[in-house]
Amino acid sequence: MKLPTFLAAQASLRPDHTALIGERRMTFAELEEATTRAAAALRGQGLRVGDRVAIALPNGVDFVLAFLAAVKAGLVAVPVNLRLAPDEATYILGDSGATKVIREPSEVTELVESGEPVRPEVPQDFDDCVISYTSGTTGKPKGALLTQANYIVLNGFLNQAMWGLGPADRQLVTTPLAQRTGLARVMNMVCHGCSLLVPPKFDAARTADLVQSERVTFMATVPTVARMLLPEIERDPARFASLRAFVATGEAFPVALKRKLRDVLPDMEIHSYYAMTEVGLVAGMGPAEQFAHPEAVGRVQPGVEAQLLDDDFHEVRHGEVGELWVRSGPPGRWLTMREYHGRPEDTARTIRDGWVATGDLGRFDDEGFLHLVDRKKDMILSGGFNIYSREVELVIAELPGVQAVAVVGVPDEVFGEAVAAYVEVAPGHRVTEKDVIDLCRQRIAGYKKPRHVRFVDELPRNSTGKVVKRQLTATS
Fold first, then answer.
1. Residue 309 and residue 359 in contact, taking contact as beta carbons nearer than 8 Å
2. Please, what is the average pLDDT of the chain?
3. How far apart are alpha carbons 132 and 144 in whole angstroms?
4. pLDDT (tens digit per residue) in 113-142
C-alpha cells in the first residue's frame, strides 16, 4: 500500500469533493493532478528516488502540495518548522542531507505548471516517506525516518477505528504541518477523504470563525490550543456546535480543562492519546474514560505491545514504575520508525529486537490503564526518594490561575536535589508560593512538594511548544 494510491482513489471516488481549504480551495481531482505534475517536475530536476527534499513553507495549501508531490516522486520529505531559529533549521538541513529546499509558495506553483501529468515510477520496495525531527528537549534533535506504511497503519486504519473519520468530516489544523500531529491530518485527508482546513497559523478568534463558517467537525491538537480556545468557546458555544470530536495529545491534558470543555460542549466527544514521533500512537482514551481515569493516558492500543523495564532490562512487578518499551512489529512496517537517519548507534540504543525505548517512566493500574510519571531523564532524586516531576506538575496545574508549570530538580546541599516549580500565571490571576505549596501538601507526600517556587512570565519552549527543562536547570 502506498499513499499516492489512496489519493488517486479519493480523486476517482469523489473528484469534486473539497480536499483542501486554505489560501485557495482544491478538490481531490485538482489535488491529484497538481501533485502528479509537481512530482514529475521534481524528478525532472534530476532528483533521484530516496533524495531528501526539505519543505520550509508555512501552513497552507502549498505545503500539502509540496509534501504529496515529494512522496509521489519517491523522495523523502524533511518538514522544517518555521518557528525554528536559523541555527536550528540549518542543523536539520545539514543532518538530513537535503539536496533541495522548497522555501517559497511560488516554487510549488512553478513545479505544478512545469510538470507532466504522469506520475513518476517508484520501486515498490521503496517506502521511506518523511524524516521527522524530534523536539530536542534534552539535546540535539534526531531525525526519525518514517515510512508510508507507518502513516497508513496509524492514520489510515487506527485513527478511523478510534475516531470514526470519513468523507463527511472537515478537519481543522491548529499546529504546524511540519510536526507529526499536523502532518497526520494530511494523512487522514488522503486516506479517508476528509476535507482539510489549513489556516496559516493558529489564532483563537479566527479559529472560532472558521469552525462556524466551515462547519468543522474534527480537531486534533494539543491541550495548549484547547486552553487558548476555551474563552472563545465559553463566549458563544453555539459557534462550535458542528464539532463532533476534539482530540488532544503532546502533553498532559489537565482534568480541569477537560471538564470545562465537557460542560460547555456536552455533545462533543473528548479523546486523548499518548504518542511519540518514533512509535506513533501508543495509548488512548475515549470520552467514557476521560473522567473515570483522569490521571492516565489510556490503555495500550490494539496491535501494540508494552512492557515496563528497570535499568537492568528486567520487567518490573505490576504496579511498579519502569521505563516504557513498546513494539508493533518490524521497524518501518507498522508503527515503529525505520531508524534514526544517519545515527546507527542511537538507533541501536533505542530499538532492541523491535522494542523501542520511549524514555518515559510509567506504571499500569489494575484496570490496565497506563500512567506516565515522568521522563526518565527528568526524575528527581531527593534524600533517597524518587520524585516524578510529572506527578507534581499535575497537582500544581489544578490550581486556579496556573497557566503552565514545569518541575525540575535543582542542587541541594542536604538532599542532593530539591524540587523546584516554575509557574506561569494566567493574566488577571494571582497565585502565591504559599498557594502552590499548600495544595501540594494536601495532595502529595511532603518530600515531593516544591522547596522552591519561581514565577516566570513564560516558560522556555522549543519550536513545537514543549518546555525545555534543561534551560530551567541551567539557570537555577
1. no
2. 92
3. 5
4. 999 999 999 999 999 999 999 865 445 789
Residues 339 and 303: their CA atoms lie apart, in Å, by: 20
CB 383 within 8 A of CB 415: yes
For 452-467, give one letter per residue: b (16+ CB within 10 A) or e.
ebeeeeebbbbbbbbb
Could you report the per-residue pLDDT of 203-262, keeping only the tens digit for each? Answer: 999 999 999 999 999 999 888 788 889 999 999 999 999 999 999 887 677 788 889 999
Q: Which three cell numbers stand for residue 223?
A: 491541550
Closest CA to 322 of 386, 271, 250: 386
The predicted pLDDT at position 445 comes to 81
Determine contact, residues 19/189, Cβ cutoff 8 Å.
yes
Rounded mean pLDDT, 304-327? 94
Q: Are strands 298-300 and 280-285 parallel, antiparallel or unpaired?
A: antiparallel
Round to whole Å and give the CA distance between 69 and 378. Answer: 40
C-alpha cell at 272: 486523548
Q: How far apart are CA 113 and CA 441, in angstroms?
A: 65
pLDDT of 464 over the 70 cut: no
Confidence of residue 435 (pLDDT cuts 50, 70, 90): very high
Q: Do 446 and 387 form a contact (C-beta atoms < 8 A)?
A: no
pLDDT digits (tens, 9 = 90+) for 332-364: 999 999 999 999 999 999 999 999 999 888 999
Question: How many Cα neighbours within 13 Å face the side chain of 440?
Answer: 27
CA distance linking residue 358 with residue 351, whole number of Å: 10
CA distance from start to end of the chain: 51
